[in-house]
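Job type: complex structure
Entries:
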Amino acid sequence: MKKFLLAAAACAALLTVSCNKEIQVRETGTTFQASLSPLTKTTIDGVKVSWAAGDAINVNSTGSFGIEAAGSEASFVMSAEVTAPYNAIYPPVIYYGPDTIELSDYMFLEQVSMIPLAAYSASEPILHFSPITAIFKIPVTGADGATLKTVTFKSKGGEQISGQFTIDFTVPEITAGLDDTYQSVTVNCENAALGTTPIDIYIPVPAGTYSGFEIEVETSEGTVVKGTSARTLAVGELRAMPAIDATAAAPAGGIKTAEDLLAFAEAVNTGASLDAWKNADGEIALLDDIDLGAYSSWTPIGNPTKTGNGTSNGTSTCAVEGPSFRGTFNGGGHTIKNFKASSGTIADGCTWGLFGALVCATVKDLNIVCDGVEFSAASTADAGVLAGTVYASTVSNVSVTGSIVSNGNDTDNKRFAFGGIAGFVFSDDNDGESVIENCSVNLKVTGGSGANTKAGATGVQFGGIAGFATTAAEATAFNRINDCTARGSFTISVGRSCGILATANCNTILTGCINYANQTNGFTNGRIGNVACYLKTQCGLVNCYNFGNLTTSNSQTTTGGLAALLDIASAYIEGGGNYGTIIGGNTSYLGLICANCSKFDHISGVIVSGRLGVYGGDMYDVNADNFMDYIGKVPAAYVDKVTGLSYVAP
Amino acid sequence: MRIAYHKPDAEFGEFLPGLSILDASGDVSGTISDLDLVNDTWDF
């Protein structure tokens, strides 16, 4: 050390004048800085950390001289007298005040191995330094000839990872909160040459729980983005990440694997860039079939915290809060198979599906094969194999096949709507209409309504295509379900269930839809149809057909071939017809067309066929002369509104 | 505002060994802890 000091003294005599401009006086304590090499930095060999030649420390706001030799131990000569207790920090430039440090948000490649350390000693000038952050080690490789420009590491949830932190030297421990505007660290790599030997980037990150991290590696060839989901970091841990090939081919422009799909979902839910999954047309593109068989749970793509899915005419709203999917998803005719996740118990006001909420979005040309997807709700909630909520969005050419199990709703008198394509469908005058077109389901559906005993708007309702569709009462926008088909078998016990749409609550038109599915429903006092259950304000069926058989067993349940209930003067059925066998337990409200048509605008041009019978009893003798007696219950005042019906023998 | 340090030949400079040699006041010894390795992966 003596030899070093003498050499340093000679050097100082030469440099003192020339370096005067670079002496910096900070608010608390004085440090002396100048432009000399070598840089002050630690040495990292695996998990071993050693002092490097030139390293200096700060003790009680006083800087030390750089040490002469590297090693696991070092003796620092202080530039001024320091007395116990000793609060020590490394590197000295992160010292900001007696209880404050400052982690850089901008570094140069030469400094990326400077691991922030702190030490405390009450009396003896012997200090054992330990890390005060976790460390991410990020190796970066690249093609020969390429150069590395910058590496930017940022937290995804807005958590502070640079800037000022409070420090307790005695632990030692740092605490964020002094300035949470610093959520990233950028390393200027000054066009360092890339190759197969990695450039190791070390990023100090304060301990804590983070929503995740994202890293952008910019090279002369472009930018590569990598990231993590949520992480909890501990002080002193070295997070060794896989090497990033900074010159890897540009992202595939689509989704090829289940891992890609999960990463895409994560990006949607965190608001990250979706560019990596877009094709040349700017659509999210599925490039291959995806097998989700390994995933028993699923976080929806676009997973809102609340959907505000109002239920009744006059109060209907759909204010989606939190993440939603808002782009175009092009399935390319590919299949997402083995989708067998459980929704878990969907919280009040929430939604679940492959997609959570589609908002001003389009999903097209996609097939989904589900295997025992289970739906459960805590209270008002929606679920769909494709999407829980469809808001001002278009779904076209999507098929869903497989099986669904309903565990119903834990709460009575709270709507739980579920379907093969969608749970809840909403159109808005400002944001646009929702259209579900050319979609099909072929499903085995089983299960019940849980604790929910209702069959009204607050009951459990299932539609092969969608559960519940509405708009605000004053809206002029419409939901449109066009040319959709349902096949399969529904052995179910819920208040409303059918092949296409259980509840058309407001401004919803079904056109050209066909149900082939057979249904058996044992719910008490249900409202059951085979195309729809309830057509309400300005809702109608146009050229919709039922070919499926329907059996309800309860003596209070209304049962109709096309629908169960029309009780608003603007509802209507136009064209189409029933060819299925309809058997119900409630002989007062049982019909080949509509069980209870108490109010409507018109029922016209409908074909009446199929067979009609009483559950546990006989089949009616329906024929060309009497078929009007078996279309369903129509009040005398509305008989004139039923026109142009024709009978076709089964 | 960005916080930047340890850029050689820039305004933030580097510690200068010996700059205030006449004020030197003895040694403080320092050892250093190792890190705990956690092998992690990128999720996307």
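Summary: Strands of chain B lie at 14-15, 27-32, 36-39. The longest strand of chain B covers residues 27-32.
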